[in-house]
Amino acid sequence: MRVLSEQHISQLLVHLERKECKNLLETLSSALSKFSAQNQPRYISQATVHQPLRSVITTKSNNTSLFMPVSNTTSTGIKIVTASGLTGDINGVINVFTPEGRLTGLLGAVELTAFRTALVTMTLLWRCHKILKRHICIFGAGQQAEWHARLILLLFPETVASVTFVNRSAARFRKLEGIRSSNPHVTINFLSKEGNANYDTELVSYLAQSDVIICCTPATEPLFRYESVSNPSVISRFFSLIGSYRPDMREVDTQTLLSGENGKIFVDSKEACLAEAGELIEAKVGADQLVEIGHLFTSGNEGLLEYPPSGYNIVFKCVGMGIMDLTVSNALLQMAIEKGLGLEVANL
């Protein structure tokens, strides 16, 4: 059994090479493809991925814990994450087992979750050939935001001209300075709301030129208005909405959410997004408007990736699934073994 602490995982991922990242993209795409394919009626009896909706408990101390079990038949896992009601800190672990229940891996969940969520966004963005990737706008300044920026810069090094981080306060930007120093050819902007009388004007300016907009915040009100992103000079945009995960949370307004062709929204899981995504619930979105990205990665469906037609956007909503954690955990465990990282514990 191998233990990978948060420090081990950070060390493994920060030094990730482009080829390794592309291999992880294909591994995750394959897992998502299998998940979506088995939801078709003719394949339900042959299902290999089993993942009930997450369970949530909140204690009297206002500590909230999420439990996400999953099996892909060849391995089983469960992620347990707790958000402190006192400090807001997040801690958690991912346990990986053999099909027979023998523990093979114990991994810190915080850095891994941020990375795998960004990786899921990249599985779709990587295939959106019609979307330019010159100017990137990212809402948030935590690990989710950081990893979206890192992976975009790793995968599209010749394309990206600027990355703008937008956050309520400026204090958290200090942790992102490393991105600026390691990418001197890219303009890195930081825009904070607190104490900034020009915030609204500056935000509209950044959004107007953005090709890719990533939202990584637990917002309960839209972060911007649709009018800010309807600039005709940018033919089509890519939106990834990964920060809101409860029915009371909304990162964008309904007009932005439905700005894809015929209101089409790409999702990680139809069932989970319809139950948990506040933007979809507010807009009364139906299952027929949703396309699971796993279907796009199935042989024969590649034509769907020619979206969007001119004037429409790509909108992706992700609330996260256990199969993502399990797939990436197994891949990182193997990489750690090959690189001699982590702690091996025998006879547990």
Explain the overall architecture:
By secondary structure, the protein is α/β, with parallel strands linked by helices. The chain has eleven helices and 15 strands. The strands form two sheets. Strands 9-8-7-10-11-14-12-13 form an eight-stranded parallel beta sheet, with helices on both faces. Helix 1 runs parallel beside helix 3, helix 2 packs across helix 3 and helix 2 packs antiparallel against helix 11. It starts with a strand and ends with a strand. The model has no long low-confidence stretch (mean pLDDT 92).
Which key terms come to mind for this protein?
single chain; 348 residues; alpha/beta; Rossmann fold; eight-stranded parallel β-sheet; seven-stranded mixed β-sheet; 32% helix; 21% strand; globular; ODC_Mu_crystall
